[in-house]
Amino acid sequence: VSEDPRCRQCIEDRAVGLAIREAIGRVHGDYGLACCSISFTVKYLNAYTGTVLLRCRKDSHRLLCSALPFVRQLESRNQRYPCALNTLHVGGTIRTCQKFLIQYNRRQLLMLLQNCTNEDERRCIQKSLLSCSLKAEQSHSGDEEDDGTE
Questions:
Q1: Whose CA is closest to 64, among 100, 16, 27, 14?
Q2: What number is the average pLDDT over the span 57-82?
Q3: Is the pTM of this model over 0.90?
Q4: pLDDT (mean) for 54-70
Q5: Do the beta carbons of residue 57 and residue 92 sit within 8 Å?
Q6: Which of 31, 53, 66, 104 has its Cα between 20 and 30 A from that of 24?
Q7: Per residue in 29-49, is it b (16+ CB within 10 Å) or e — as a string?
Q8: 16-38 pLDDT, tens per residue?
Q9: pLDDT digits (tens, 9 = 90+) for 74-84
Q10: What is the pLDDT of residue 68?
Q11: Is the dihedral of CA 132, 134, 136, 138 positive or negative?
Q12: According to its UniProt record, where is this protein located (predicted)?
């Protein structure tokens, strides 16, 4: 969540990962940072919608979730942008998190559809609604067995 529209254009997964790691270090110290850093990654970032999919080990997801409210800014290209991170869903696999994101985006599009002011906007949002689906698995590397925290 960010009030500054420039933040969404400049956001990068590396900047999000660094901000979250710093917050974990401030809140939980070296122990929490070590626990969370073992397999922590930013798996998906959509700067337009402000959605981030984070992956961590199952045993450290509570440390990660408890540190997210302490991320207050993102730094990108020597600029600092105020922001806030909200947990929408915690899932056991990347695939369940992807399914949740599809349903969440559909709900958001339906809310936009209700607020349309003209027919062109309505057609564009309806087209987006119809295109919401989960694509075939991109790799068989075992990501579907990984823990996913969003």
A1: 27
A2: 89
A3: no
A4: 93
A5: no
A6: 104
A7: eeebbebbeeebebbbbebee
A8: 999 999 999 999 999 999 999 88
A9: 888 888 888 88
A10: 94
A11: positive
A12: Nucleus
pLDDT at 147 over 90: no
pLDDT (average), residues 95-120: 86
Q: What is the dihedral of CA 40, 45, 47, 50, to 10 degrees?
A: -70
Amino acid at 110: L
Question: Does residue 148 belong to any structural domain of this protein?
Answer: no
How many residues does this entry show for the chain?
A: 150
Q: Give the C-alpha separation, 18 to 24, whole Å.
A: 10
Written as six digits, the tokens of 23 are 């917050």
Show the domain range for 111.
95-132
Look at residue 71 and tell me if it is in a domain.
Answer: yes
